[in-house]
Design goal:
Aspartate Aminotransferase, domain 1; Aspartate Aminotransferase, domain 2; 2 domains; two-stranded parallel ribbon; 18 helices; 50% helix; globular; binds pyridoxal-5'-phosphate; aminotransferase
């Protein structure tokens, strides 16, 4: 009897009601890219660093750390000592090398399955401790934030962040939404290199945001997936968080080492929650450990050892800091090259935002139709919101990309010219 005949004879058809889940927008881009046989196709979908040849790289700091941890026992599960080292070293990047928070043990930290896992742990904690609360997410934000908080059964609301006309920050609207949220709300903030817009508040704007959070008694949860990618300097990219710390906020912070160490496959991250004292920190940490235990027990050890070694060995850390700068600089160079190329082509549209925005992404302003044409006519792939992963732009493909963008925006350019003529 075939298996399908056997299944038909069964009383209960367990999975008949199940339909496929909607595709993840970023995975869909990758699938379309992989299915395209064109030799000069370009993938601008994935937020993963690529070198100027368009290739993924293993950082020198990772090679050096790997050599030093070679003799570790990767078959044992994580010990407390291994986890604590990762947490302590990661916390220094958030709270500062000599921070009292760390000396006094005033934070609860746990290793997490990269940035995604860290966000998920926090969402679960929020639901557990504040079941009636909601999370305020920037509009737009990394699409998975919506999924994570939805699956943790935490209510969501968005706050205004991006202004499509200026392709910059809608600061007034953002402040209004913070002001109008009920006192004591949870807000998710990207401290640097906002995904997908590449638009970060200025230092002064962060100060105002922090002051307003104080007045409103809101809780800031920072998702820091790209530390180093905005400015090339990890300390500078932590500035927003440091402002909140100086203002005396308690914060949460998700960290990822996927991008800034190029360790996507190892899934190494950290979640820390700042508390008033050590007693609270012990309690929160035990809650987080319990949540993690039901989800995956303990995280894989290899990546944790790699990251801990990079962060704790002064020579390897120095190499890493230099490599972060190199990656950020290359991305910045590509921003300048893309804008330059579009301007040289005589585009009448304003492309300043390409260089004003920071980090891995450029929120280009391209419409879904234009994105579609880029894929169909030019074999260039990006998400439908027009987000360009600048890491996929190289010296070799930048002019081709600019030319394709110039072509698909021709009607926008005509409209702008007509508009200027009639003004
Ligand atoms: C804002 C933001 N948070 C978290 C993540 C998840 O990163 P990870 O790959 O470390 O899980 C991403 C990845 O794209 C992101 O853009």
């Amino acid at each position: 009897m075939s298996t399908s005949t056997m299944a038909r004879g069964r009383a209960n058809r367990w999975w008949d009601h199940v339909t496929p889940a909607p595709k993840d927008p970023i995975n869909s881009v990758t699938e379309a890219f992989l299915a395209d046989p064109c030799p000069y196709k370009i993938n601008l979908g994935v937020g993963a660093y690529r070198d100027d040849e368009g290739k993924p790289i293993v950082l020198q700091c990772v090679r050096e750390a790997q050599a030093k941890i070679e003799s570790s026992n990767f078959l044992e599960s994580n010990s407390t000592a291994v986890s604590s080292k990762l947490v302590e070293e990661s916390a220094k990047l958030v709270y500062g090398e000599d921070s009292d928070v760390i000396k006094e043990g005033r934070f609860a930290g746990v290793p997490a399955l990269s940035g995604t896992g860290a966000c998920h742990l926090f969402a679960e904690l929020q639901r557990r401790l504040y079941p009636d609360s909601r999370i305020y997410l920037p509009d737009p934000t990394w699409s998975n934030h919506h999924n994570i908080w939805r699956d943790a059964h935490v209510a969501k609301k968005t706050f205004r962040y991006y202004h499509p006309d200026s392709k910059g920050l809608d600061f007034m609207a953002l402040m209004d939404d913070i002001k109008n949220a009920p006192d004591g709300s949870f807000f998710l903030l990207h401290p640097c290199a906002h995904n997908p817009t590449g638009v970060d508040p200025s230092y002064e704007q962060w100060k105002e945001i922090s002051s307003l959070f104080k007045v409103k008694n809101h809780f800031p949860f920072f998702d820091m997936a790209y530390q180093g990618f905005a400015s090339g300097d990890l300390e500078r990219d932590a500035r927003a968080i440091r402002i909140f710390l100086e203002d005396g906020h308690l914060i949460g912070c998700a960290q990822s080492f996927a991008k800034n160490m190029g360790l996507y496959g190892h899934r190494v991250g950290c979640l820390s929650v700042l508390c008033d004292d050590k007693t609270q920190a012990v309690a929160i940490k035990s809650q987080l450990q319990q949540i993690a235990r039901t989800m995956y027990g303990s995280p894989p050890i290899h990546g944790i050892l790699l990251v801990s070694k990079i962060l704790s060995d002064p020579d390897i850390k120095a190499t890493w800091l230099k490599e972060v700068k190199v990656m950020a600089t290359r991305v910045r160079r590509m921003r300048a090259a893309l804008r330059d190329s579009l301007e040289k082509l005589g585009s009448s549209l304003d492309w300043q935002h390409i260089t004003n925005q920071v980090g891995m992404f450029c929120f280009s302003g391209l419409t879904p139709d234009e994105v579609d044409r880029l894929a169909k006519e030019f074999h260039i792939y990006m998400t439908y919101d027009g987000r360009i992963s600048m890491a996929g732009v190289t010296t070799k493909n930048v002019d081709y990309l600019a030319n394709a963008i110039h072509e698909v925006t021709a009607s926008d350019q005509d409209a702008k010219i007509l508009c200027n003529l009639s003004a």
